[in-house]
Amino acid sequence: MKTVTLAGQTVPAIGIGTWHMGDDPQTRASEIATIQAGLASGARVIDTAEMYGSGRAESLVGEALQGVDRQQVFLISKVLPENASRDRMQRSVEASLQRLGTDYLDLYLYHWRGNVPLAETVSELQRLQDQGLVKAWGVSNFDVADLDELWALPQGPNAQANEDLYHLGSRGLDYAVLPWQRQHQLPLIAYSPVAQGDAWGQHLTTNPVVRQLAEKYQVSIYQILLAWVIRHDQVLAIPQTSSVAHMRQNLAAGDLTLSAADLTALDGQYPAPTHKLPLDVI
């Protein structure tokens, strides 16, 4: 099982994403069962946010974690830009903690940049860490210029992760962001690592090379896509699923290593960028 060091903890390179979960009462029981099955199968990281369902995803995670050893879970949540200020962030994190049924977060991310000065947001994130409400903090949807600005702040290099959109059909990070993060030893959390099942028309699941590799290794197409995302060291993928079977398949992708020839074949279908691209955000 491939691992990532995140905020000083070693965790499996496949985690549990929760975007779009908690919205439908009819699927709540299956979503809770899926999260619990993921933890039972070795997952440790759960990624959520106050934005997801206006707190409903956090409440769902809190219910799923009842009776689970908190020390065995690496819990990530995120603060909205409008709440990332000196006046509002503490209220936000306390509300998230209440919904999650815990007294601390392992990692608290600034969800995306807004109008609050970055220095103020970073200062407040650091204050929450010093207070013990969060063990570590980081950022999300940051491009290279944002990361440079962050690192120029006195407390900026205390950031422990950046979470960006990254999958085989969206490779803009390969040009500048991933090299920057490797140089600065900042882990990447890859959201939507299987492109939400071809939601944006990249046709990843019907691509003949992807399908051939799935047949070669006798795994699912999504396992190939996840193995590609975590081919780099210090990249954590957080796919979302409401299916216990898919959850177990996702986690098994952490044991799959694609060969150099496999990666070359995928590059031929989805080439790495040769120039800087705008940061993909959904």
TrEMBL record:
Gene name for this UniProt entry: yeaE
Short name of one Pfam family: Aldo_ket_red
Domain NADP-dependent oxidoreductase: 13-267
Full protein name: NADP-dependent oxidoreductase domain-containing protein
InterPro entries linked to this entry: AKR (IPR020471), NAD(P)_OxRdtase_dom_sf (IPR036812), NADP_OxRdtase_dom (IPR023210)
